[in-house]
């Protein structure tokens, strides 16, 4: 199977299917998956199939257990990398929320927008800013920052008086 950097799941699955002399439709029938999904896997359009899918493919394509486990480890490591990248992206997004110098009214408006986005069951809410990809924890951190800025603004008002 090779090491992680050189391994290509899509090519591997395509080779295994061809070695068995099966069509995508036959593999789909044997696994209970759609032939469109098999095609997406072989084209690399789906890169992280579930363990259940890997097990079905392993059975249909006669993939040895050791190789099946290696594929699962490969996918798990890809998932870890994906999560790390997502965390980096989220950190970058949080840094975009520099609210310094905003009025209390503006800060309240932002907080209201966050609340609306969290409670909205559809995406028709007009977004003041994009929170796509932010976890609940990150949104809570933004709200805490907003509260701190409110306190800071109140302090600055009192200090001026």
TrEMBL record:
InterPro entries (alphabetical): Cro/C1-type_HTH (IPR001387), Lambda_DNA-bd_dom_sf (IPR010982)
Keywords: Plasmid
Residue ranges occupied by any HTH cro/C1-type domain in the UniProt entry: 13-69
UniProt key word Protease: no
Gene3D superfamilies for the chain: lambda repressor-like DNA-binding domains (1.10.260.40)
Listed CDD domains: HTH_XRE
Highest rank taxon of the organism: Bacteria
Name of the featured protein: Helix-turn-helix transcriptional regulator
Recorded GO MF terms: DNA binding
One Pfam family linked to the record: HTH_3
């Amino acid at each position: 199977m090779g090491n992680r950097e050189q391994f290509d799941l899509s090519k591997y699955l395509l080779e295994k299917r061809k070695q068995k002399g099966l069509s995508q439709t036959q593999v789909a029938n044997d696994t209970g998956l759609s032939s469109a999904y098999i095609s997406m896997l072989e084209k690399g359009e789906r890169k992280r199939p579930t363990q259940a899918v890997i097990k079905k493919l392993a059975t249909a394509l006669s993939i040895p257990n050791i190789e099946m486990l290696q594929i699962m480890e490969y996918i798990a490591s890809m998932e870890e990398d994906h999560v790390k990248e997502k965390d980096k992206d989220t950190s970058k997004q949080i840094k975009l929320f520099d609210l310094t110098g905003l009025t209390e009214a503006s800060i309240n408006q932002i907080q209201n927008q966050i609340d609306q986005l969290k409670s909205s069951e559809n995406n028709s809410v007009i977004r003041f800013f994009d929170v796509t990809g932010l976890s609940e924890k990150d949104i809570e951190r933004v709200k805490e920052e907003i509260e701190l800025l409110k306190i800071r603004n109140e302090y600055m008002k009192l200090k001026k008086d």
